[in-house]
Fold these 2 entries.
Entry 1:
Amino acid sequence: MVMETVFIMWQRQIKLFIRSKPRIIGSIAQPTLFLLALGLGFGPVFEQTGEMNYIQYLTPGIVGMSLLFGSMMHGMSVIWDKKFGFLKETLVAPSSRTALLIGRCLGGATSSIFQGVIVSALSALFLGYRLGHPATIPLLLFIMLAIALLFTLLGTIIASKIDDFEAFPTIMNFLILPMFFLSGAIFPIANLPSPVQLITRFNPMSYGVNLLRETMNFNLNPDLLTDAAVLLFLIVVLLIVGSKVFQNIET
Amino acid sequence: MSDHQRTSPKVIEVNHLVKKFNGVTAVDDISFSVNQGDIFAFLGPNGAGKSTSMKILTTVLNPTSGEVRVNGYDIVNEEHKVREAIGVVFQEHTIDEYLTAYENLYYHCALYKVPRKERKERIENMLNIIGLWDRRNHLVKTFSGGMKRRVEIVRGLLHYPQILVLDEPTAGLDAQTRFFLWNYIEQANLDYKITIFLTSHNLEEVEKVSRHTAIIDHGKILANGTNQELKEMTNTNTLERAFLEITGYSLRA
């Protein structure tokens, strides 16, 4: 029965996503724009430094970006449901709040994985991105799920604590943009000044982007286990915090 | 649970309930009970502590102190048992506008653990009663306020609750829908012995439908009895007048 609660909430979030065509288009257009602008703009400069092909470098970063933005912003649906009442309907139901939270987050994660997949396909079709090895696709989906789940949980927890419709996107941008820029998604972070590098160590997105990039480009190495461990650890922490927050949520 | 509680006809028992928000007392030591099968109106001016009490009763808020039992279960420690026993229709719409009428009801069944094989039949019956079976696959956002409210009322009954809690069920609805809803609620009360706990500012309607009424103001219960008793107590001939006599004529801040 707990499984059905998770499933129902997952399905509902997916339905909301699919039924909003502007949202689907917008969520794919934004990373695509970044991919084109940065890929075409910085590509030549990047390659002059003797690093790898920029599209190979950038595409996993932009996939990570789709996951980060889509997942964090998915928290908005909690604020939406507070305002339009549906949250109350779920809160007076005899269902596990943790199951409600997990279902919601898996639904949000699934829609941002969908964005990530579309963006990588677009890059492969139009910018010549080459996936390292097709056998890694199941593993990649799993990695994308981990990243997406981590950030939907974070976005949902923050949204549960905020009632202000307009404050949420502002606060989110304040969190998302530094995490994005200092993750290695669009430029390498290994050569940054050491204080900045220290920050990147505390950025969960750095681990996600690295794991995603090395797997997509088939550069498997033992360091990736650290990345995966950090992500899984954070997911567990956020699940515990999120359950507690959802347990006490009042509308 | 003692035998006494199991056989008790009191389906809602509130004892010394207190709720404070940052030191401000919204509900100040109230006690009352509702008999099984009753239609009980809980009335009060705006800001009287009515909504707070309703939220506590429906397990959305936790009390600061005091004990509340619904269907014999403690609302704090046995909240899932309480949630199973009640159907709630909130003052504001709580229906998902981007789902169809059918999906909304189906999701409710899933959240309330209605057996899978009974779901379709229950939903079909309910939607037929409110005349919306033909529109079951339409998104709720295309529905009028009255249609949404009809869906919400039957949704509250889908899991066959022992108690139906209605917070301002007819606010903003046309005469036809109000007439339909009150009849439907009375019918549910008669046919299935469902206890109705309601609040409304339309005291004419309340007088017609309710059997017992409690009046709350400034967080305290000022009067509690049958509608007849309240009218006799205040020497008035309508519930509305009795309400005004008890709570005063001044406007609320």
Note: Chain A touches chain B through 22 residues (CB under 8 Å).
Entry 2:
Amino acid sequence: MRKSIGLCVLCLAALSAALGAPSLTKAGEPIKVGAIFAVTGGASFLGGPESKTVEMLVEDINAKGGVLGSPLKLIIRDSEGSPEKATAFAKQLIEEDKVVAIVGPSTSGESLQIKGLCQKAETPLLSCAAAEAIVSPVLPYVFKTPQSDSFAAERICARLKDLKLAKIGIVSANDGFGKAGRGQLQKAAPGAGLEIVADEVYEKDATDLTAVLTKLKAAGAQAVVNWSVVPAQSIIAKNIRQIGFNVPLFQSHGFGNIKYVEAAGAAAEGIVFPCGRLLVADSLPDNHPQKALLVAYKQAYEKRFGEAASTFGGHAYDAIILLVEALKKAGAAERAKVREALENLKGIVGTAGIFNFSPAEHNGLTSDAFEMLTVKDGKFVLCGK
Amino acid sequence: MTQDVFAQYLITGLSVGCIYAIVAIGFNIIYSTTGIINFAQGEFVMLGAMAAISFCQCLPLPLAIAAAVLVTMLLGAGIEFVFIRWLVRPTVLRTIIITIGLSILVREAAWHIWGNQVRALPPFSGDETSSLLILGAHITPQKIWVLGTCVVMVTGLSLFFSFSLLGKMMRACAANRTAASLCGINTRNLITFSFMLSAGMGALAGCVMSPITQTTYDIGPGLAVKGFTVAILGGMGNSTAAVAAGILLGVVEAFCTHYMPLAFKDAIAVGLLLLILCVRPRGLFGSRAEVSWGS
């Protein structure tokens, strides 16, 4: 009953705004922000840190007086990583909760599923998933905060070229992440003068990759690039050393969690991978534009939740700060104005990099957003030149 | 294919095959006593490894493994006591549904206890990168542990079933439960014991393979499918045959990766199983009597 009265009031408010675009909130009333994350399920390693991060960040913003004189009201929905659930929640958030924008979903599959819906309902979507296809081709209402897979592939290939390793072996998992990465590597390798001597796809929950590595060794690969998430990325690290295949091992940006290093133990030493700067925040030079923000986020997160901060939580952090900037710039919690403001944000410092949006560029990052990291004594460090 | 590449595939196949085999042995123990195919067997493997990883934080490794095996055995007994014991005439379908249900239950419980993180026991000897060179192929000490465990398990079990009174009672129970109970054997307790034994074997298997394969809460079903395949391939109820079948499957899979894309690996395993089921339904080494299982 109370809900329906609220809805009537909202409708009346919308009607009374009459000819102009309907304002979703009046000053002082909370600004509703929707969030869809895979808090549980197979992708919870993404959604868990993301939902914790946005909760912490929004509390912080509200404690400081909110945005445009109104507190933010966060509505988090757990999609469990399922595109179907993400779709249902997106509809609910847009039509019933009348949120000003949606943050998330965590995975590329979900984001691709709901981006058309958000575009149609003219509600800004700030995806926390990496796939290029989310913002290419550009839909006016769809944005994303993580660095694209192509940047990672470019950085890996550039590094291989610097090391003068021409023959590479690619191994990737048969999931969406692995397939996307494999495609980007195939695209980037010829440009860097690299020859792919072996290209193997394995089951995403494979437990022993010795056989496939033996094949790569026999094919004469001078470096191995693996594109997968857990558990295979730790297993491959162990197996490659165990069979005495002493070539550099490169991993994707999915390796950016110290737990994976722990899982691989001594075999993780020397792995090279591209990653956002969050993991090496403390060792950045003091004048680096991202340093202050990264250190502050990392410390706040680790203090509050007692676990290591990951770059994934950072993507949600970026989505919220971008949204807040856009709200301030738009001057009103209206979807169309927020969208327009988002599209014209320039030089916003986030955890993933420095965002410069434009009507043709809805990710706003370049391959500089990645840093090449390596593992030394069980810790992430910047890769020497 | 050069000699050392050949040897590497062979050794890889051998160790993978032994992992399949030690999971299959767990299936066989329960099947040969009760005729039940326990689809929660993979969960015993997972529980053993997870418990050992947890105990490892406060106990030395051998004690942690012993404690994990013990805990899993008690759990196996508990499961039999609560879910299986009261079935008067369990049909194959009914027990399959119960054990599949149990596997889901145990998996979800494990998820709540340990979360979805990937964990692993430390290698029993050496570290994650150490390996020995045999015939130009590299083998890790942990794989030798797996091979050794496999040999000890099979020898121990066949001695147990041939010579100990308890083992003989279990065989009697398997052959004819009514006749066994007429001879004064408490068949119900024996069935509980077979669950304990197979839970213990599963837990031990989980512990020795954890440093190689790593452990997450959801490894059970995948292992159960491979273990079941191997058990069928060898002939249900025969542990020695399971080892032979496991090694055969492991080696075939390893060599297949050289000649065709890796994605076909599981298709080979299933193809092999279908072929055996069509040509020799009792399994490679099974006796004719086993064909009528479930009746």
Note: Chain A touches chain B at residues 42, 44-45, 174, 200-203, 205, 207-208, 210-212, 214-215, 217-218, 230-231, 234-235, 237-238, 241-244, 259-260, 263-269 (CB under 8 Å).
